Hints:
Layout: H1 9-24, H2 28-42, H3 46-60, H4 64-81
Amino acid sequence: xxxxxxDTRETLLDAAISLASVIANxxxxxxxxxxxxxxxxxxHTVDDNxxxxxxxxxxxxxxxDIVNSVMATSVLKEKSKL
Length: 82
């Protein structure tokens, strides 16, 4: 699967580094969960995937990442009002 085609090696590397930066700024739980879910989805039915994701989310979303994300969002909203 291809999402983009690049004319030069340099533009490819720039795009890869940019994407890596975006991913690195995400919650590690979210990144790991996405990777695990995508790998699971390759070999299972849609219904199996829904069950898997529901189970994953119920256990993995009970972390400090959620609290930190909510706090960061509220801080950003407060700054934008200033």
